[in-house]
Specification:
transmembrane transporter activity; Growth Hormone, Chain: A; 3 strands; 20 helices; membrane; 3 domains; 3-stranded antiparallel β-sheet; mainly alpha; about 70% helix; about 0% strand
Amino acid sequence: MTMPMAHTQRTDEQKQRRNILLVFAGLVMTMLLASLDQTIFSTALPTIVGELNGVDAMLWVITIYILASTITLPIYGKMGDLVGRKGIFMGAISLFIIGSVVGGFAQDMTWLIAGRGIQGLGGGGLMVLSQAIIADVVPARERGKYMGIMGGVFALSSVAGPLLGGWFTEEVTWRWCLWMNIPLGIAALAAAFFFLHLPEKAKGERGRVDVAGMLLLAVASTALVLTTTWGGTTYAWGSGIIMLLICLTVTAGALFVWVESRAEAPIMSMKLFKEPNFIKTTVAGLVIGVAMFGTLAYLPTFLQMVTGANATQAGLLMIPMMGGLLLTSIGSGAFVSKTGRYKWFPVVGTLIVSGALALLSTMNAELQVWIICSYLALMGIGLGLGMQILVLIVQNTFPNSQVGMATAANNYFRQIGASIGTAVVGSLFVTNLGNLLSERMSAAGAAQGGDANSFTPDLVRALPDDVRSIIVGAYSDALTPVFLYMVPLVFAAAIVLVFLREKPLATTIERDGGAIKEPEPEDLDTDPDTPAFSGSDLPGDRGEQSMGESASSGAKATSNGPRHRADLPPL
């Protein structure tokens, strides 16, 4: 190789590395925004419900965001596959900003919940598209360390959210939990506009939008979450409205499956479920969503009401979880990129989470704070070992043309788990709390304590010792048993993951005419007899290109012009 050619190659590699890092920085920012808003209200909620007098609607501030983002996940994933991801990504950021403005000026709980819902409609796109875009520019073998950093960002938000929420509530106003998204969202929008360069789909490659599938998915998801949210609290489980919602969930879900199996361009192809690894990672993702978000949503409330921590201190007490998640997420991602081995990370991680939940169920008002922090650190270690690796496994299972749909489907079920977990834990907590307060609080104590709907940490701390001890005991005994209920569920998910099949990770991305393609099996640094994509190879539904067709078109491209490997420089 001559000196000018070598210099040109080095320059191209440096430019490619710079572009990837700029894109990745923008993706990290948007992931931070979306994940931050899933937890930032956890420490602010006690003050918000006291100020807006809405403890009965407390869980909706968190649940509506998760529900809205969940419904839109498959839509964003499929639309990105159909028309390209950049424009849709920017639209999602814009929706997120609008929701922050609406919620930031809320004067009652209904107004606040509406703003959070709009935020969620944008947040779903931020979460799934940031992961899918990584698959557009980084091969699977190198993707582990990038995904590990994304997991680290999620870890940061899991603690920074409650901490920022607490600080804003104590020092300024809880409304800054929403207002802070406006400048950050604008910065992310600008970064996407100037630095994110992705190939747009040609009109001939675009399939028909699956409107029926979108509507049925929205109906089924909403009915399911309303069932878990209202059941046992607002309405009895045997009431007509709950029975109607259950029937609506089942009917809409069945119709969704029927429509998707016949759609030209389904938002969630039923052929995804022919791949065993997808089924196993999806089950695990759903269970992790239940456990993680059910815990994160209400643990800060426990810390404030039971240990006497203020909102800021409750956020700080979550740092051990962040540290554990950050360490294992980045470490496991780097190890996977170096060795290509990944199967046992989610297995061990899920087992650790089940143990941490068992320990959290033993908490009480007398337990020392450092012991609680050690339990949280263990929870973070387990979550960091598995979460992003599960996404990587899904992306490595399917061709690039279906990565958006597959990633979105996996995220969808994790978010369904999050929505169910938040709603069920909240419902059980509120029901248990109401029953315990009714049983334990005397008429004199209730008069002194005020309306239970308006309890705030400051109000509880100001109560006489005998009344305060009743309330603190009720909060503790209402929440901690719920953690124990989740232990066998998470343990079962770990058993399912034992049966994962470890497929080789692709080491290159091939570009053909500007489009990015996963390498065919012979391009992998593995046994040529081992396929990169197994099972049915997920040929698309009607109108979608199969793997065989992709290989055929690739052969034609080779005969007609050069194909370039996108070997990336190290991160």
